[in-house]
């Protein structure tokens, strides 16, 4: 009986030792650092006119009989049009002042006959411009910091600073250790993300998309 008690004690001691080793290994894996990066994307409304775009009247308007071109800045319905100073050629470059308006062109032929084009779509905002990249702060719930976020940490991404942006969407991506081969993380579309065990050793990228509509 005494011999059996010794064997039982040895087995119990071995089980405890293995359990401690397992815990240590688990803690070591969880403590692996995760890198974080940010990325920005800009999106303009489809077929939207923006400052800097080039408008050209059809070639049929370009003949020896044409005596004058005149571009007009109108309201959103194409009414209440006013002449645009200096805009007297077949080609017109959309201006910042045109934002929120539609544009029309009046062509005058010899004999003083004239025709006015249909209004363009409303001129939208310029494409968003990022002037300060988004930042990521680490809440540290998992015990990490910005120098080494770990599993369980809650990351929060900012918008950064933009010109001409009216709204934003967000996507967290899981990338390899070099920040390449990124895959969107399913459901991670808010400004916060909790690091998972599968993120250990990877690079997590926070993507901010800015829209001008």
Verbal overview:
This protein has 213 residues and is mostly beta strands. It has two domains: 33-44 and 127-211, Immunoglobulin-like, CATH 2.60.40; 54-116, no CATH class. It contains one helix and 15 strands, in the order H-E-E-E-E-E-E-E-E-E-E-E-E-E-E-E. The chain has one helix at residues 2-30; strands at residues 35-43, 54-56, 66-74, 82-83, 91-93, 102-109, 114-116, 129-132, 136-138, 154-157, 161-163, 167-175, 183-184, 192-194, 203-211. The strands form five sheets. It has a four-stranded mixed β-sheet with strand order 1-15-12-13, with no helix packed on it. A hairpin with a 7-residue loop joins strand 3 (66-74) and strand 4 (82-83). The longest helix is centred in the first third of the chain and has 29 residues, at 2-30. The radius of gyration is 32 Å and the shape is rod-shaped. Residues 1-31 have low confidence and may be disordered.
Numbering strands along the chain, what is their spatial order in the largest sheet?
A: 1-15-12-13
- The name of the CATH topology of the largest domain is Immunoglobulin-like
Task: Please count the helical segments.
Answer: 1
Profile the largest sheet. 4 strands, mixed
Structure summarized in a few sentences:
This protein has 213 residues and is mostly beta strands. Helices cover 14% and strands 35% of the residues.
Topology:
Elements: H1 2-30, E1 35-43, E2 54-56, E3 66-74, E4 82-83, E5 91-93, E6 102-109, E7 114-116, E8 129-132, E9 136-138, E10 154-157, E11 161-163, E12 167-175, E13 183-184, E14 192-194, E15 203-211
Parallel strand pairs: 1-15
Antiparallel strand pairs: 2-5, 3-4, 3-6, 6-7, 8-11, 9-10, 10-14, 12-13, 12-15
